[in-house]
Fold this protein.
Amino acid sequence: MGERTLAMAQRLVHQVVEVLAPRCVPLFLTDGLKDYSTALLTHDWQWVEPPRAKPMAQRQAPLDAAAAAAYAQVVKKYRRRRVVRVRHRVVFGTLAGVNGC
């Protein structure tokens, strides 16, 4: 397996994207490692500058990926090597979008 680093997450995302159909945006489900979201955003999607004329609350999301991608994490809490709690966290997209995939 090796170390769980940003470089490892980027390699994994690259390998997954290589086997997908063109323009396909899948549902990504991972554990709580924060490097996966960075790897997903830096691989295929572009940073988008929000328009300056609108008030802060009405600006679009700063990432183009947020509109197209569905990404959620399954975060487990362990106590004495046993899972005691499981949380689901939507990182990109909406809960309805993640549930619909």
Summary: The chain has one domain: 6-47+63-100.
